[in-house]
Amino acid sequence: MTDFGNFYQLIAKSPLSHWLETLPAQLAVWQREQHGLFKQWANAVEFLPALQPWQLDLLHGVTAKSEQPLSEGQRKRIETLLRHLMPWRKGPFSLYGVDIDTEWRSDWKWDRVLPHLSDLTGRTILDVGCGSGYHLWRMVGAGARLAVGIDPTQLFLCQFEAVRKLLGGDQRAHLLPLGIEQLPALQAFDTVFSMGVLYHRRSPLEHLWQLKDQLVKEGELVLETLVVEGDENSVLVPGDRYARMRNVYFIPSALALKKWLEKCGFVDVRIADVCTTTIDEQRRTDWMVSESLADFLDPLDRMKTVEGYPAPRRAVLIARRP
Question: Which residues does carboxy-S-adenosyl-L-methionine bind (predicted)?
């Protein structure tokens, strides 16, 4: 599962080929620094059956079906192995009668974002901080030629590879266990997504520059992040925690974020969507049993976090690299 040879071959004759100057060495370092539970997670993936879906729907969700329903024993075995990879945060997935009800309804976010995007048909896409890779599959469903996700969390790589195995080993999506700061300026992606990452960055403008460095000329950035209400100078800098999260540094208003993007040289910047995150979209489930959004909000006033800050609102901004 930690053999990235297929990906190397895939990009060797593409505009991404110069990535091969640094990528194999970085992934070799990663292999020497694996999480204590990694072997256990990798074994769960290894023991999953390699199934070829008779019916695969990546347009309306991530759904795979077999021609004949699996036996109860087969279905139970798949579910047990997938439960070894809990907690499942981004999804949902429906795989041969096993429904992974994830903490986030990531399909709702996708439905909000998709109408505002340039057509993804034939595009090479980067998804920064992609989690389990749910949105990579939706990008493929929307016509992407290649969807590459990066996320350093090793459990997410195992979740992605488990889903890929059950989708018949589909090579149109790949997840690499890296952070954006490890990428050279590739300038090779038609579309770059950064969703739910910016507020975790100590230097948000540097993150925007890093995203810009990955885009081709005229390439499109899709940025989704926490925002507060306010004018173009409004930015919340929370104390020790925001909604019980430790590593939240800057939460700008949507208008301030638009200004930041313009300061970094993006053009045609537009605020595509702003909405409050609800406890229906992010919640505890049978596949993610620890605390979730309802536990992070003030029980007497759902418009505030437990720390007294404004409750989570998220904005989607679209911008272009000139």
Answer: 90, 104, 109, 129, 151-153, 180-181, 195, 199, 314
